[in-house]
Amino acid sequence: MDGLRQDLRYALRQMLKSPGFTVVAVVTLALGIGANTAIFSVVNAVLLRPLPYPNSDQLVMLWEQNPHRGWFENIISGENFLDWQKQNQVFAGMAAFKSNSFNIIGNQQAEEIAGERVSANLFSVLGVQPFRGRLFLPDENRQDKAAVVLSYGLWQQRYGGDADVIGKQILLNGESYPVVGILPPTFSDDYSSFLDPHSQLWLSGIEPFEPGRESHSYHAIARLKPGVSLAQAQANMNSIAAQIEQQYSESRGWGVAVISLHDQIVKYARPTLIVLLVAVGLVLLIACANVANLLLVRATGRQKETAIRTALGASRSRLARQFFVESVLLSISGAVAGLAFTPLASRILVLLTPPDAPHVPHVEGVAINGLVMMFTAGLALGTGVVFGLAPMFSSARVNVNESLKDTTRATSGGARDRRLRDLLVIGEFGLSLALLAGAGLMIKALTHLHHVDLGFNPDHLLTVEVPLEGPQYEQPEKQAGVFHDLVARIEALPGVESASLSRGVPVRNWDGQNFVTAENPHPAAGEVPDANYVAVGPHYFKTMQIPIVRGRVFSAFDTQSSEPAAIVSQSLATKYWPGQDPIGKRLKISGDANDNTQPWRTVVGVAGNVRSDGQYWPFRPEIYVPYTQFPWILYPRNIVLRTTVEPLSIVPEIRRQVAALDKDVPVSDIATMEEITAGPVQQGKAVMWLLGSLATLALVLSGVGIYSVISYSVSQRTREIGIRMALGASDGSVASMVVRQGLLLVLIGLGAGLLGALAMGRIFSGLPFKVRLLLLFDVRPTDPLILGTVSVVLTFVALLACLLPARRAAKVDPMVALRYE
Question: What is the Cα–Cα distance from 448 to 445, expressed in whole angstroms?
């Protein structure tokens, strides 16, 4: 113990003796360790922390899947859910839920709130207890017995935390429901927020479910019985799905997927965070290589001191321990400095995480906790060992007799030390190439995304939701009349170029529906086609600037008394009427040609394709119907308008026009289409900025590394350079000799890095399609332009780093150099 204290005191004296060296080493390590700690704190919060439910590892999501159509996580049929619930032997409980928006009326201004219609047992499946009141009772599963549970946040914001709200009736969509409970402030809706906006209220009464096994409208969550594995649950559900498939022809081709809830939530975040964790790990390795080089240089300068200590009786292990203590003390200092800026870096990471991007869990609870501290401590110890190995081995090879006989003022390292320093620089540039290539691929992918043709023009395009809910709007004619008046009022506003009505907007709120064509009215079971369903107003295509490539648009003549009409997208027309004129063709928006609730519609136009799922995804078939013809499959609720002024400046006037028609109708979900279309690429932008920052840091560290090695080499070769110049070598030849030495190391490093990049390309190619698409879009992982550009940038940086010591070498005075030793 006394020896260790002595080593610590000696290590501290060495650090204080060389403040410049200490500052450079500590700052380098602080950047590497701090970046790793910040990324790990997010990884811990998203990937490692259990979900906020009791025994959350027992929770699973249930999906229907149809591999024949490429659907592996499809929302479920209510009738199938009831069969699963009755027949399974593996779940302690199973609940269904469906996202809804609710108009709250009364007490304050009308407001649309995101919520869910749920099974009465949802909270018992999750293991949640109420903060006030109670949760749902079994008989409240019926719609005529429905009740409401509020989130803590909504209770505080709208009702001021009034405990008397429990037991009172509130108006949702014009109907009265009792509030029976308040959820605790710690409750998290992680189970559904990765699918839809955060819910603020829950309404029971999900039964009766929508009829028909082809009607897929619900999500399902279940809790495994104790001791039941995921594989056992999947096998049991496969058996039930096979029985349903045999009993009901419309279920042909459909199966069940059982997925851990935690895996479901982090499915798309995990690869991105692992990529970032690998990236900061590479930065730390580069930092370690830099510090190892600095320590090797210092160890070479201390060879005579080491030889003297050895001659006085110090053992090799004793000397190695001294070097080890010095390196670990440096790494601990770097870790402490890194922790100082980790909270700020973590907050920046959280801010960069898009809160509403699809498939991205909301990052909360990022903090420097015990696990993060353990990670940082392990990192500090590990890095101390890694970069401390080089000087330890170097000191172990000191030849005592040669060092003591050497009377020169400077001691050059042996060939092994030089080779080790060169290898470290080669490794730095190889790792830097990998990081810069990753950042370059992300930049190219995002550039491609910005040039993707969406099929419409989002510039100066605004959308607002105006949900007409309640008994007074049950008749479609009433809704259509109000919407007609409202659109006319909005179109008359100054600054509005055109306006229309729609069921949702591209990238958000689209809903798929089955349909059949007159040419194939009875498709094989499980192969009924589907398309996005959109009820729109007459000026929709003009407002969205979606081209009509054939036929006509909807007009005021498309009324309830005229022939039912439809406009289809080019992709639908090409797929279902290849080589034919789609105008005049007929289709029915239903999976059953004998369904009398829906009419046969005549195709009157063909619209250009729209990327309704965002820039990442291909065009989907779409069917547009005029909102002036009923019955609707889904009610229109979005006003879209194109403006000649800043779109959001029109919002106050829109609110006034809506209130003039009905003061109890809220205006919600206000957004420009530019904001909406930017949403899917936010995750890619965040990753690009982070990778770009890490790559820049790696580039700087690599430049410093090559500079330090070449600079030290020049200082050690001063006598040799002087002799060369005394024998007639020119300044240019000496400088080029130094530059060649550095560039040779860089080129070897780049070669190794390119081989690593090719290997990483294979790994990327093996990622799931959706993950690969989110990270790289349509860019090849081994894009030659990116790899070539990165190689040129690294070579240029290395050249700049070599020029300074090269210039110094070229200015050596031969007479001074010959007297140097």
Answer: 5
Per the listing, tokens 């059949």 go with 516
Find the angle CA(134)-CA(136)-CA(137) to the nearest 5 degrees. Answer: 105
Q: Would you say 713 and 301 are in contact if contact means Cβ atoms under 8 Å apart? A: no
| 714 alpha carbon, distance to own chain's centre | 47
239-268 pLDDT, tens digit each: 999 999 999 888 888 999 999 999 998 887
One DSSP character per residue, 554-604 reads --TT--TTSPPEEEEEHHHHHHHSTTS--TT-EEESSS-TT-TTS-EEEEE
Give the distance, in angstroms, between the CA of residue 179 and the centroid of all CA atoms in the same chain.
36
Using CA of residue 578, residue 583, residue 584, residue 586, what is the dihedral sign? positive
List pLDDT tens digits, range 55-74: 999 999 999 998 877 778 88
Q: ∠774-776-780 over CA atoms, to 5°?
A: 145
What's the whole-model pTM score? 0.78
Q: Long-range contacts made by residues 160-168, C-beta under 8 angstroms, separation at least 24?
A: 163/132, 166/132, 166/133, 167/133
* Predicted confidence band of residue 607 (pLDDT cuts 50, 70, 90): very high
For strands 461-465 and 668-672, give the pairing. antiparallel
Contact yes or no for 294/24 (Cβ under 8 A): yes
- Burial bucket for residue 50 (CB in 10 Å: 0-12, 13-18, 19+): exposed
What is the tens place of the pLDDT at every residue in 687-732? 777 778 888 888 888 887 777 777 766 766 666 777 777 777 777 7
pLDDT at 819: 60
Quick one: which of 222, 506, 220, 197 has its CA closest to 360? 197
Which region among 27-36, 456-465, 527-536 has the lowest average model confidence (pLDDT)?
27-36
- Digit-coded pLDDT (tens) for 116-167: 999 999 999 999 999 999 999 999 999 989 999 999 999 999 999 999 999 9
* CA atoms in the 13 A half-sphere facing the CB of 191: 29
d(CA 481, CA 472): 12
In whole angstroms, give the CA distance from residue 192 to residue 186: 16
Question: Alpha carbon 659 to chain centroid distance?
Answer: 39
Q: Give the model confidence (pLDDT) of 663-691 as tens digits.
A: 888 898 899 999 888 877 776 777 777 77
Name which of 728, 701, 716, 685 is nearest 798 in CA terms. Answer: 701
Cα angle: 99, vertex 104, 107; to 5 degrees: 155
Q: Any idea which residue has 């609870």 for tokens?
A: 365
Distance of CA 482 to the CA centre of its chain: 40
CA-closest candidate to residue 150, choices 176, 115, 119: 115
Cα angle, residue 602 at apex, residues 599 and 604 outer, rounded to 5°: 145
Rg of the Cα trace of the chain? 34
**Tens digit of pLDDT for each residue in 427-485?**
888 888 888 887 787 777 777 777 788 999 999 999 999 988 878 888 888 999 999 99
- Under DSSP, the state recorded for 431 is H
Distance CA 484, CA 556 (A): 11
- If we measure between CA atoms, which residue out of 192, 166, 189 comes closest to residue 179? 166
Give the Cα separation of 184 and 202 in Å (integer): 14
- Mean pLDDT score of the chain, rounded to an integer? 83
Distance CA 508, CA 511 (A): 9
Q: Are strands 108-118 and 91-106 parallel, antiparallel or unpaired?
A: antiparallel
Distance CA 373, CA 404 (A): 45
Mean local confidence (pLDDT), 324-342? 82
Strand partners, 256: 64
Q: Is the pLDDT of residue 292 over 60?
A: yes
DSSP category for residue 207: B
Q: Do the beta carbons of residue 205 and residue 145 sit within 8 Å?
A: yes
Tokens of 46: 């998203």
